[in-house]
Amino acid sequence: MKLRSSFVGVLVAALVAVAGCGGADETAAAPDASGGGAGLEKTTVNVGTMPVVDTAPLQIAMEKGLFKAEGLDVKVSTLAGGAEAIPKLKSGALDISFGNYVSFFSASAKGAIDLKIVSDGFQSAPKTHVIMVPKDSPVQTIADLKDKTIAVNTKRNVSTMLVRIAGKAHNTEFDEDKNFVEFPFPEMEGALKAGTVDAAQVVEPFGTFIGQNIGARVIWDTSQGPTADFPIAGYAATSEFVEANPKTVAAFQRAMSRAQALAADRANVVAAIPNYTKIPASAAGSLAIGVFPTTLDATRLQRVADSMREYGLLDTDLDVQNLIFSAK
C-alpha cells in the first residue's frame, strides 16, 4: 500500500521504527472458545506493518497477548513503504500485510495479485488527512489550488483521490499529472517551507508536526464531506494463503477484531504509539487519531472501489464483497 503515514527532526525519526512490545496492561486475553491454537494450519505468521498510527491495533494485539491467546506467533516485518506489500505477499515473504485499500483494490483488479482482505485497519476521522499550505500563502480554499502544485506521497492513489473528491465538492477539477507532485511525507515540510509546492496532502503525525514547526495552515480536512469516515487501510493476504490456512486467518481476524475494539479507547492507542515508532509519548497525545473498525463491512469498503472507478483508478467496476475473507 502506498500509504502515507504519519511522521526533518522528529518527522524523519518517526519513520525509523522498531516493532517492539511493552506498555501498560500486559495481561493476555483469555483464549476464544474457537481459538487457542486448536487445529491451526500454521502458527507462525509473518505480517507486514508500518510505523504509523494506523497500525496501533496490531501493536496492541501483540502487547495484550491477543495473538498468543489464539495460538499465533506473529512475526512483524516493518515495511519502508506500502509499495513493498504487494510483491512480498505475492512472493510469500509475508503471509499477511497492512496496506491501503486503493493499492490493494488496484492490484487485484489489474490481476497483479489475487487478494483477500482479512481485517479492516483504519478509517479517517477529523484532522487525520488534511491539505495544508504555508502560513503566508494567499491560498484560502481548495478552489484557489486549481492551477497550483500539491505534494502527495504517491500519485494515482488514495492521496490524490481524496484531494480530487474534495475538489469536486468545490467545483474544481485536479489533474493527476499537472497538479500533483510526489514527495515522501518527511520531505513535505521542507517543500512547503521552500515554496517548492503550493500545498501538501498530509496525514498524521505530519499534519500536527508541520503545523507546529512552520505554522502551515489547514485549508481543507479531507476527512469530511464526501470522504467523511472514509476507509483507508486494512490487512490482506493472497487467496492462496487464505485457502490453505483458513483457521489461521480466522484466528488472526479474531485477534485483530479485539485489538481494534481496544483501540476505540484513545488512551490505548496513545500508549502504544511510542512502543513501535519513534514518536515520543509527549507528542503522541496531541495527534489526531482515526477510527479502527472491528468488522469487515463490504458496503463501507465499496465506497473506496466506487470512488476509484469514478476517478479513473479502476477501469471496470469492482465488487468488494468478492475480496473479503469471511471465516466459516
Please supply descriptive tags for the structure shown above.
D-Maltodextrin-Binding Protein, domain 2; Solute-binding_3/MltF_N; 13 helices; ABC transporter substrate-binding protein; signal; five-stranded mixed β-sheet; 328 residues; 10 strands; disordered N terminus; 2 domains; globular
Short description:
This protein has 13 helices and ten strands. By secondary structure, it is an alpha/beta fold. The relative contact order is 0.21.
Describe this structure in words.
The chain is of the alpha/beta class. It folds into two domains: 10-124 and 230-323, 3-Layer(aba) Sandwich (D-Maltodextrin-Binding Protein, domain 2); 129-227, D-Maltodextrin-Binding Protein, domain 2. The protein is 35% helix and 17% strand. The protein contains 13 helices and ten strands. The chain has helices at 10-15, 56-63, 66-69, 85-91, 101-109, 158-169, 185-194, 206-214, 239-244, 246-262, 266-276, 281-284, 298-310; strands at residues 44-49, 73-78, 96-100, 115-123, 129-133, 150-152, 180-182, 199-203, 217-221, 231-238. Strands 2-1-3-10-4 form a five-stranded mixed beta sheet, sandwiched between helices. Strands 7-6-8-5-9 form a five-stranded mixed beta sheet, with helices on both faces. Strand 6 (150-152), helix 6 and strand 7 (180-182) form a beta-alpha-beta unit. The longest helix has 17 residues, at 246-262. The protein is globular, with a radius of gyration of 19 Å. The model is unreliable at 1-35 (pLDDT under 50).
